[in-house]
Amino acid sequence: MKKIAFLALLLCCATRFSYAQDLKAFQIYDKNQNPVNFPKMAEALSKYDIVLFGEYHDNAIVHWLELKTTQALFQLKGTQLILGAEMFERDNQEAVNQYLSGETDDKKLAEDARLWANYKTDYKPLLDFAKENKLAFIATNVPRRYASVVAKNGIDSLNRLPEDEKKFMAKLPIKIDMETPGYQGMFEMMKDHAAGKEMDFVAAQAIKDATMAESILKNYKKKDLFLHYNGDYHSKEYGGIYWHLKNKKKRLKIAVISIVQSDSMDLPIPKDFVNTEFIIVVPNDMTKTF
Questions:
Q1: Other residues' Cβ atoms within 10 Å of the Cβ of residue 73
Q2: Does 14 have pLDDT greater than 90?
Q3: Where are the domains of the chain?
């Protein structure tokens, strides 16, 4: 009896150990849904003009992968690497530049820029990497107050703004094509929340996407690689920023990294998923950062 109990205990321990061994924090796939390792992804990304790293804003492992991707691309591209992010708005560029140059510190940056709640844990490491390695870091997004104006009063309301404020957004008029991936879905989603204002919410998304695309194009130079961090919805399925970039510069070689969550331990790509250059699957119960 004791021998049987001992064997059962061993089996239980072995099962638990096997379970722990099988845990994955992430799995990377290429566009053909083939599993790839991180070095292979980084090497491939280094051949592009622009990389749009879609993220889940609250996912700890994705933020870590953004930092590791930045470090890897710097090893391959050096100072030809340019960084930029949705999380910093155009009118905060001077504050960002002063921080990068060492003219100001963390406290002053927090006073002068509208930093996200998870800045210290998730975006400060990226900004500090740029600072340490003398890389440009571009605040690409439209100031949120203008996106709010559009959501409330429509896209045409931007035409009434003073000219010196329009420099903080993409050149007007903004082209809004409802065939752009994501826009129709947003329109349908808003029917239950803001009936009659659906198009205004789509326009608010479009002013963000168009401004980020324009910011990237204004700062990209031939032979450089522009690595941009943005919410996954801003580039998934080749919509959002990607669409606006291609609408302006069709010849640009742009890679999109998409994020998706899975409840399965082996982290497969969900069925009917629209593949991009790389897909990173993360556990659905991954620790959230805020």
A1: 21
A2: no
A3: 25-283
Its CATH class, for the domain covering 25-283, is alpha beta
Distance CA 227, CA 161 (A): 31
Report residue 3 as tokens: 């021998």
Give the whole-angstrom CA distance, residue 174 versus residue 211: 9
Question: Is the bond leading into 173 cis (omega within 30 degrees of zero)?
Answer: yes
Q: Which two tokens stand for residue 275?
A: 């593949």
Q: What is the CA radius of gyration of the chain?
A: 22
Q: 101-159 pLDDT, tens per residue? A: 999 999 999 999 999 999 999 999 999 999 999 999 999 999 999 999 999 999 999 99
Q: How many CA atoms lie within 13 A of 142 on its CB side?
A: 28
Q: Are the C-beta atoms of 32 and 236 separated by less than 8 Å? A: no
How far, in Å, CA of 180 to CA of 8, rounded?
A: 58
Rounded distance between C-alpha atoms, residue 272 and residue 274, angstroms: 6
Side by side, the strands of the sheet bearing 278-283 are 35-36, 27-30, 278-283, 254-262, 50-55, 225-231, 81-89, 137-141
Residue 177 is encoded by which pair of tokens? 């094509």
